[in-house]
Amino acid sequence: MLIDIPESWHEALNSELEKDYFKKLETFVDGERAQHEVFPPEQDVFSALKLTPYEKVNVLLLGQDPYHDNNQAHGLCFSVRPGIKPPPSLVNMYKELRSDVDFRIPNNGYLVPWAEQGILMLNAVLTVRAHSPNSHKNQGWEKFTDAVIKRVNAKDDPVVFVLWGGYAQKKKALIDTTKHRIVAMAHPSPLSARNGFFGSKPFSTINAALRESGKPEIDWQLPDLKA
Q1: Which of 10, 23, 130, 182 is 20 to 30 A from residue 32's alpha carbon, by CA?
Q2: Backbone phi, then psi, for 183, in 5-degree steps?
Q3: Cross-strand pairs, 211
Q4: Predicted confidence (pLDDT) per residue in 73-107, tens digit
Q5: Record: fold of 7-212
Q6: Which parts of the sequence belong to the Uracil-DNA glycosylase-like domain (predicted)?
Q7: Is 30 a catalytic residue?
């Protein structure tokens, strides 16, 4: 496995790379790539860390598992590559954005501009076998991404942790709520969006929390991309 941790995260995460669980995880992912197609491509596995340096993390948005169909996953939760149709959860996020913050729905699902504004867009599991959801869970990724969450929690400045759905909300135990803000509601998946995601105004809530801590708000509007 290509261990491409950007320099800003070295101090926070280098000790994890030496642990037995991570070495086993490396062996597992290498074995999977030798026998199957695995998403995202090797060079994109740590994209969330590359696009949002440790010192610039103001928001942590937690997803669960990478998209498992062709050309979708590129290392950011909920985001897909340019030219790929937005999946259902992202479509629902766009619907809520439109009603919450006067968002114009773009022609793509490429969320890199959010990551570049300080949103760490982290999946709990960073790889998946093609067309086989959750196929890499319980292999060690969760320990690694819990370590990322703990390191963000250790930041001196307040961070907004965005936890959608029951799986993400289990991570509340890792977060110091006396220092940081949690924005928790239902997941935008079609299975749950009508049970507490639609109408919950998460995006304006995030910006209000950033404003309260003296940090720049997120410009949620995404540009249209040329075909």
Answers
A1: 10
A2: -110, 105
A3: none
A4: 999 999 999 999 999 999 999 999 999 999 999 99
A5: Uracil-DNA Glycosylase, subunit E (3.40.470)
A6: 50-210
A7: no
